[in-house]
Amino acid sequence: MAEKPRGQLQVQAPREVLVERGRFYHRSHGPDGAFEIAPDIEAEDPGAYDPLAAARLMAAALRAEAPDLVLTGLQSDDLGYGQTGPILAELLGLPHATLIMEVEKLDSGIRVKRELEDGWFQHVEMPLPALLAIQSGISRLRYATLMGIKKAKTKEVKRLTPAELSGDAPVASIRLERVYLPERAKHTQLFEGNAKEAAARLVEKLRFEARVI
Amino acid sequence: MSILTVMEQRGGAWNRMSFETLAAAQQLAKELKTTAGAAVLGQGVEALAGELAGKQLEKVFLVEHELLKEYTPDGYTSALRQLVAEVKPEYVLLPHTYQVRDFLPKLATALGTVAVSDVVAHRVDGGGLVLVRQMFQGKVNADVRFTGAAPHFASLQAGAYRADQIVEGSAGVEKFTPAIAAGDVRTRPAERFRESARAVDLSAAELIVAVGRGIKEAENIGLVQELAHAMGAELAASRPICDAGWLPMERQVGSSGQTVGPKMYMAIGISGAIQHLVGMKGSRTIVAINKDPNAPIFEVADYGIVGDLFQVVPELIEALKKPK
Lengths: 213, 324
Ligand SMILES: Cc1cc2nc3c(=O)[nH]c(=O)nc-3n(C[C@H](O)[C@H](O)[C@H](O)COP(=O)(O)OP(=O)(O)OC[C@H]3O[C@@H](n4cnc5c(N)ncnc54)[C@H](O)[C@@H]3O)c2cc1C
Fold this sequence. Notes:
The complex is a heterodimer. By secondary structure, chain A is an alpha/beta fold. Chain A has one domain (10-165): HUPs (Rossmann fold). Chain A has 5 helices and 11 strands, in the order βββαβαββββαβαββα. In chain A, helix 1 (51-65) crosses helix 2. The N and C termini of chain A lie far apart (48 Å). The interface between A and B is large, with 72 and 92 residues. Strand 11 of chain A pairs parallel with strand 17 of chain B, so a sheet runs across the interface. Flavin-adenine dinucleotide is lined by residues 137, 212-214, 238-240, 252-257, 269-271, 273, 275-276, 279, 289-292, 295, 308-310 of chain B. Flavin-adenine dinucleotide (FAD) is lined by residues 137, 212-214, 238-240, 252-257, 269-271, 273, 275-276, 279, 289-292, 295, 308-310 of chain B.
């Protein structure tokens, strides 16, 4: 966002911090630093870090940076809790909005476009500092230039451990007990064999059994 | 009362998913041998509370305040925090809507706990309540237990419980007026809007061929387009395809796109994440083509081919050319 060349957003001095499951990328006018929080999985029970316990560490690291804007994703593809953004906002005492599709700088703060269900949208205004959880599709990833990669290598990546961030052992309020493949609810007629045979069988079924084509 | 259901409304109209959550609350109350109640937040929503009074509930809370007229995460968190402090429920159930995703983690954090999101089922055993939630985009399920102190929060996925199983009854309505100061609400929402009228109305299509990330590159979309053409079907897509700009947004099916119910929906290279499924599972006949036999899409499919779409789709086009 800070590098948006012609966008409405001109980040003046503010620094933004990107948070991604335990890894932070912190930048001001282009990436100028990153930090990473890594629990010692040999010594600690990773299950003790539920979304709140993990966010507490992120909040501890972020407080020192006092960013004007914190950007998080919406939901991870693995555990998929979809909670880190709003949890962090509460811990940091920041106003927040989720499902963000656009961000615009105003004199009084920012104006964002939120996605709602069923193809609806809504604009929301809020003061800075704030936290936004970004929805997919807001921008495309670009490949870094050779220069950019070289420059990035000179940037400092701060590595922080939970012990440095919080004296206390994490306390989880939910526990993952078991992970398993779901049972099939419905009987699917599967066509196997080579692609040609399977395709012919499927078309036949759609024509004469389901009668949909 | 030990189970509180937070219903969702906007401008006096229900989000129907709330009733699935209400049904779950009644069911859970029975299994845990306790009672359930419900709350509706807003301003001028007495009629909605009145409707809830006709359900088998211990009590209905009508939570009204001028600052609850429009949804804001600050306003809702503040109001619910006060309500929960007053009612002291053991469990608080909410529908897993976009709005709930927006404020529930904040509310739970304010109370020092974590909500279990995306719940699809539950069971009660010796150790109490076990919630089942999806992970890895629906590919696996996980059993989750609360280990902290009450209240325990959970948001329930669309379609997990059936609203038609709600038991009628009668319940008293209690007014609850939270104290919210204008300064507590830091975000200012504007009116909702839709982008320019949709050029394609997928909800009217009889046949839909939809393409997902399995197609790999923009250049390959033509292959699926050709199949759609051979069938006389409309072309649709999962979100990543529209996010990447390979097809326009108006062809997106799912919770943030269109909801469709054609005679036939063919999902090609689509994994079947819940946000996609909610937009198409009402289709009469569902066909899935996917190389992963464990893809969640097969759970809703009537017919399926486990295979490489780049081999299967050209063969389907060939097979369709043959006369009946
Ligand atoms: C708030 C929110 C709203 C969302 N709204 C929507 C929405 O409206 N609509 C929507 O679709 N998604 C939505 N999503 C995203 C959703 O969670 C999924 O990420 C998305 O649906 C995945 O798209 P996909 O199935 O195309 O991709 P993937 O999940 O990556 O699946 C690709 C599939 O292709 C298969 N495949 C790969 N190669 C081949 C091959 N050669 N032959 C055959 N099969 C192959 C793979 O096995 C896999 O199953 C939303 C997410 C969030 C958090």
